[in-house]
Amino acid sequence: MAWEEEKDAAGRLREYFEKEVDGQEKKVGDHCGDEVEEVREKEVSLCAYEEEEKDGEEDAGKVLDLGPLVSLIDQMEKDKDDESLRRWKEQLLGTADFNSVGDKLEPDVKILSLSILSLGRPDIILPIPVALNPKGSWFTLKEGSSYRLKFSFSVSNNIVSGLKYTNTVWKTSIKVDRSKEMLGTFSPQLEPYTYVTPEETTPSGIFARGSYSARTKFTDDDGKCYLEINYTFDIRKNWPSASPV
């Protein structure tokens, strides 16, 4: 996750307290000036969060116009006399399961599993399905630890275009991260798909520890949401003695 905003704010706050403890003397005018500058920096930071929130809202409102939906069988029947086009479609669809397609137009995506991978640690398996608003912390991560997200999903009925994963994180009602991962376009098949995100690192330090709230969504280019989870998680100094299963 991109935690740079919170790290910067924590660094400024830590520096302020260190100067107070060291007993550094400042003139009243200089001290007031520093406070005003710090307030300005905080205002700029908050504006950045607001702009990011607006960007997210704009992205949510922009749905690609992909034209009318056509069933997978109809797509294969079109231009079937064109050999090159037929081969291209077969290559695109790969191992598509036509037996479970029928004439349904809407693709169906089911998120089958979610897990967190961290080198040297047992995988943290997050149960699916989950309550709409799980009570308590869903999982705990160690500060400064590297991790990846892994999820498997199935696709049926039709091709899903532009499947994406978005995750938004808040701490004390302030948004500290918003990440989006484009998974791609997938055709129906019997075997589930598996996707592993690039490696990321949790923030570290006393100001990074604590509880966070988050929202995870899986959507496609049509704006259809296949899974939305609201949950909380913790970042602690050490890993928990027993990982949740």
Q: How would you describe this protein?
A:
With 245 residues, this protein is α+β, with helices and mostly antiparallel strands. The chain has 2 domains: 4-61, no CATH class; 72-236, Distorted Sandwich (Coagulation Factor XIII, Chain A, domain 1). The chain is 29% helix and 34% strand. It has helices spanning 4-22, 28-61, 72-77, 83-93, and strands spanning 108-117, 124-126, 137-142, 146-156, 160-171, 174-186, 193-196, 200-201, 210-219, 225-236. The strands form 2 sheets. Strands 1, 2, 4, 7 and 8 form a 5-stranded antiparallel beta sheet that branches. Strands 3-10-9-5-6 form a 5-stranded mixed beta sheet. A hairpin with a 5-residue loop joins β9 and β10. The longest helix is centred in the N-terminal third of the chain and has 34 residues, at 28-61. It is elongated, with a radius of gyration of 24 Å. The chain starts with a helix and ends in a 9-residue tail after the last strand. 13% of the residues are buried. Mean pLDDT is 73; it is low at 16-53.
